[in-house]
Amino acid sequence: MIKSTCFHSKLQCHVSQVQGIEPEMHNITRKRNLRQELLKWNGWGYNDSKFIFNKKGQAEFTGRRYRLGGMVLPTFKEWIEKTFGASLEHKSTSRASLNVNDVPPSVVNEEFLRDLIATKISYSQDAEDRVFRGHGHCLHEIFALREGIFRRIPDIVVWPVCHEDVVKIVELACKHSLCIIPFGGGTSVSSALECPEEEKRTIVSLDTSQMNRILWIDEKNLTACVEAGIVGQDLEKQLAESGFCTGHEPDSMEFSSLGGWVATRASGMKKNIYGNIEDLVIHIKMVTPRGIVEKNCQVPRMSTGPDIHHFIMGSEGTLGVVTEVTIKIRPVPEYQKYGSVVFPNFERGVACLREVAKQRCAPASIRLVDNAQFQFGHALKPQVASIFTSFLDGLKKFYITKFKGFDPNVLCVATLLFEGDREKVLQHEKQVYDIATKFGGLAAGEDNGQRGYMLTFVIAYLRDLGLDYYIIGESFETSVPWDRVLDLCRNVKERIARECKEKGVQFAPFSTCRVTQTYDAGACVYFYFAFNYRGISDPIHVYEQIERAAREEILANGGSLSHHHGVGKLRKRWMKESISDVGLGMLRSVKEYVDPNNIFGNKNLL
Amino acid sequence: MAAAAAAAGRARRGAPVYSQKELTSKKRGEFEDILEERRMSSDLRYAMKCYAPVIYKGLSPCKPSAIKSAVLHSEQVQYVIRQLAKETGESSDIIQEAAMEILDEMGHSMQLGAVRFFAFTLSKIFKRLFQRVCVNEEGMQRLQQAIQEHPVVLLPSHRSYVDFLMLSYLLYTYDLALPVIAAGIDFLGMKIVGELLRRAGAFFMRRSFGGNRLYWAVFAEYVKTMLRNGYAPVEFFLEGTRSRTAKTLTPKFGLLSIVMEPFFKREVFDTYLVPISISYERILEESLYAYELLGVPKPKESTSGLLKARRILSDNFGTIHIYVGQPVSLRTLASGRINRCPYNLVPRHLPQKPSEDIQEFVSDVAYKMELLQIENMVLSPWVLAAAVLLQNLPAMDFELLIEKTLWLKGLTQTFGGFIEWPEEVYSCFSFLRDVFSDEFIFFPGISLKDFEEGCFLLTKCDAIQTTQQEIYPTDKGSVVISFLSAMFRPFLEGYQLIFRYLSKEAKAAFTEKQFIPGVRNFVFQLLEKGNTQCYEALSSDIQKNALAALVQLGAVKKKKMTNGFTYSINQEAVNKILDMFVFRNQLPRRNDTYPEEPPPREPPPASAAAAVQPRRLRSGAALCRVCGCLGPRVCGRCRRAAYCGPEHQALDWRRGHRRTCAQPGAADDLEDAVPDHNEFLFPEYEILIEPEEPESPADSSVDPDDEAAIDTSGNSDKQEELRATGSASEALESLDEETLEAMAKHETEDDKIFQKFKERIAAEPEQIIRYCRGGEGPIWVSGENVPEEKDIPNCSCGAKRIFEFQIMPQLLNHMKVDSLGESIDWGTLVVYTCANNCNEGNQYTEEFIWKQDFSAGSM
């Protein structure tokens, strides 16, 4: 009792301070609130963008942010009913808003608070703020939000605005023995942001969102030094003002942050031209309980023992906070062109991608979706305004399905994105299409390609719609050598189907995959998996069991634990198997040296 | 500590093979006899049936040659070829060729034609060898399901060569994909058979090839390719070779680890292993095995050896039980045992020695599968009885044998053995009730009620106890039961002796007067030798009743004759009539097929009045050189010989057309190249129809009434006695007087009729047909087997059938089928047709034919 009143007074104290004389801090609070207000508290992405069923019962995507925004999707309802056996009659609604009483109280050491206020770093103990930073986007996390179940969330949120602020916070944390969990974009899908339930210390959520400036751009060396909290789309937007880009475009780039990319070894859609995060990063500055770790120069490569960047990249917030990153930049490409190729079946498609990778002529992005995903994309076609377009559409469909003898229930589609000089792009395009032809591929137009990429951004919104109708789903990914791609895709889908059956899932699950990245030695495969959980008492548990089985299957098929999502707490159990006992010990010893008191105690990875 | 280790060991090995519960409450499906249907319908149709098996994931089966080429060009084989080329310095082309040779030697070339050939011949053979081939249908259904889901490996037990054929035959019967079978290379030594087996899906492996890397690579890849593609179930024998002792041999692991590899490498999602238990009551190779085990070397497989083996076709090998076990998912077996897959770190096409973990797993699975085979082996009464006998050599009392066998049965059941025991009390009861129908008084048609009443009475005196399913005798009841069974024993044994007499000693036809002394003699001899104690069988009362019962059961046919009744053991008479059919077709003069006017009469060919093979109809239509049907097909080379279809063309080619076809001058000889009759065609003649001159009234007819009249008058005829002494010929001195007398009378009676027959046809000795529709009846050649009115069924239209014509035995001479004992034969064939002439028009209507033979005595 006493405690809570005490906090209350502190909170008021803080608020009065904000309302008081500090104009800069006030500004920050408004800014961070703006972001929080824009985004859903219990689902993916922007508040104004979501799938709904309108009064006519037709699916519609709201908002104006995406190309699909405001459009009616006439065939989508049927697809959902057919694929999941779902009925629009049966709805399972989320709590409309956060009930503050459900939220565990904030437990903060008073001395720390005093010290923190002295640093003038903005902070909050508000329930909504803490809940917002207490989760990622794993299914169980979102499900818990919708049901209003909160186990352990951060006790306090702090908003450093620069590297020095972070140093101060880490020092305070060491001093008061707190636990810090760095928070960037909050798009984790590995339970990395989940607070360990058994954590007794005060948990400080270190939100980097206010560290979002581009510190400098070096046009001679084509590098830029950027604060780690900047969100992907802002980074690209701001660089574009100077005519540059990083080219790093993960599907979450609207919300995920540079620091997050570094901490999880992220991969971007256009890695074929620009590289993954480990190829892009030139220099990292990280604040650890032991001090600051950085290099003495910003060079393309150095031979100074194991690259310390590789301790940082993929450390998932267990070692410290990445504050500033020097990253390669490129001039914004002159010309961009989408494309798509239809293949008679998935096997041929994979063979074509393999050949493209072999000849090292992969366009900026090349992705191959399987038939289920092709049909799904088809179901998301908006109502066409002009009858002429639909006629063309029909003609194309006829051509694909009849003329070439493609079976619409077997064919699959590759989407392409070319970038660069106009001339080179056209040349490149021809080369890729020539290879595709050898594998029975048929060019299917720019529009299909562009739609494919647009869908990857929109698809994340779909889960929230599904959750409203007893459908739960998730995506997971892996990387796998070329020769095992087909076997892995087939076996994982089969395993999912089998597990669902065994676990009593009434309706056959929807599982689909796409090959999203090609490398010399293998590919990255991305799975979507969803099912209708009506009639199951503990859907999340069932879901997790199935997902675990699917992961076991991936590992047995020679796939990796993760290509770019990271390990977090979700996949920890397989770390030993993945990197061997000794490997794990190496990582542990780094952790022990850098953070002996486990200040960064999110318990990820190890 | 030790306990903990044991527990850990068990956890690692998965569930134990047996659990306490399984022992007693094992549920096994019903068996179905697949030969039953084969005995009732055409084997040919069965062999030619539409065969469209379900296959794995709806793949379309690819050609054997495509598989071979896929294997040859697979990374696995190519890798080994390159390696060998590097090591030996030989060019890789040469090694590739060697690989191709291995493939050719090994590969199957499954062809539907060969499969159908086997389906046909095996039907014939199995029907002769085995009484029943029983299959658990439920298992077949499970198998069908499994085949569609994942690649399937069939693991049958191996006791006999029959195993090979039986499973394929079974799968064909159930419309399932035929397996490809790993067979020992020694089969290839059998000339034609080896190739035939190959075409039926066998592939051949050398007995030892440990050192030959190329062979190993090609072989392993071949098996895996077939498995991966789900082309067909792969079948092999875990035991490696036939068990000579009927004990299961310790498993071989080589092939098993090959078929498991695609799963370990995750090239397939799962693989089903199907244990199959094939239990024989008697094994074909039993004596062969005995010789072998005694050190006489195993004969090389050879075709002539197989032909010699035909001898066994006349033996009875009882029943085969095939139990198709529950398909076992390899994935389930492996789950929790093989976690981290060692195959992840090496490219999958490199040959890799399985890790110890995996070797251990393979071995465990092999033993588990064999235990499952053993578990579902069916034990029949014969097997148990044989086991008892073996411990009681050289002989044992029958009663004791039964007692011991039953005891063994109980023991087996306690041990969880799988017993098929034909033990329905009720069916035994109703059978005996029918057999004794003339011995005791049973109210007809209420056998179930009788049975229940019997049970009730026995329960009442505590002789038996009944539950829902079971009836078992009580200890107290033994007095009652032994008394009652002793009461019935004389009858049971007496009947048995009589039946034995009938099946062994009796002639095809006999009279009651022959029967009774015959039985008496037979029994007397047995009694004298001490082979039976059943004096009751001497009683004519029992004998007569038994005969009556047999008549009632339809096993013996009874016919009224002048001097009482004759009996014939039914089977023969039935069979003889059954293989002849007569069809009626009354084509009107005006019809769709032939012109109204007959073709112009041409002078008959110079050679003979009887026509030679016509090459063409006058209308110009070509006729088949072999069968004479319309022949739209011509020989592609000479364009002169016409055939009805490819079968006859091929036949004629072999028969000689190949010699004459190419000779340009032979055009004229074309007709002569085909003999004027062959096994398909009888020579053709023109039939001249002439009215018969009326004869003296005394001989005018042989209608039944007359016959009867002659019979009555004939008994004391002097002439008869004369003939009797003549034709009874070879003095049957050993027979007693009475029998002799009966035989004599019988034969003279026949002779008299035959005499009439001869007189009747004397006017026109060459006659082949006597036609008189509805008029006087046929003239019989013998007094035996003359139909009564009720023997001639009515036409399907409901009208009576009346005599139309009879075919005389002289026709046999004209048709050149006159060699005794081998050709078809008849005394006379009498055709009865519908009195109403129903169904005029184009179609054929089946009518009734009665075949009468010259009686056995006069032949």
TrEMBL record, chain A:
Subcellular location: Peroxisome membrane
Name the UniProt record assigns to this protein: Alkylglycerone-phosphate synthase
Lineage start: Eukaryota, Metazoa, Chordata, Craniata, Vertebrata
Site (Important for enzyme activity): 367
GO cellular component: peroxisomal membrane
Gene Ontology MF annotations: alkylglycerone-phosphate synthase activity; FAD binding
Organism: Dromaius novaehollandiae
Positions of the FAD-binding PCMH-type domain: 150-332
Pathway: Lipid metabolism; Glycerolipid metabolism; ether lipid biosynthesis
Gene3D superfamilies: 3.30.160.650, 3.30.300.330, 3.30.465.10, 3.30.70.3450, Uridine Diphospho-n-acetylenolpyruvylglucosamine Reductase, domain 2, Vanillyl-alcohol Oxidase, Chain A, domain 4
Main location: membrane
Positions contributing to substrate binding: 463
UniProt xrefs under SUPFAM superfamilies: FAD-binding/transporter-associated domain-like (SSF56176), FAD-linked oxidases, C-terminal domain (SSF55103)
Enzyme Commission identifier(s): 2.5.1.26
Function as written in the Swiss-Prot or TrEMBL entry: Catalyzes the exchange of an acyl for a long-chain alkyl group and the formation of the ether bond in the biosynthesis of ether phospholipids.
InterPro entries: Alkyl-DHAP_Synthase, FAD-bd_oxidored_4_C, FAD-bd_PCMH, FAD-bd_PCMH-like_sf, FAD-bd_PCMH_sub1, FAD-bd_PCMH_sub2, FAD-linked_Oxase-like_C, Oxid_FAD_bind_N
Source organism superkingdom: Eukaryota
Active site annotation, chain numbering: 526 (proton donor/acceptor)
UniProtKB keywords: Acetylation, FAD, Flavoprotein, Lipid biosynthesis, Lipid metabolism, Membrane, Peroxisome, Phosphoprotein, Transferase, Transit peptide
Subunit comment: Homodimer.
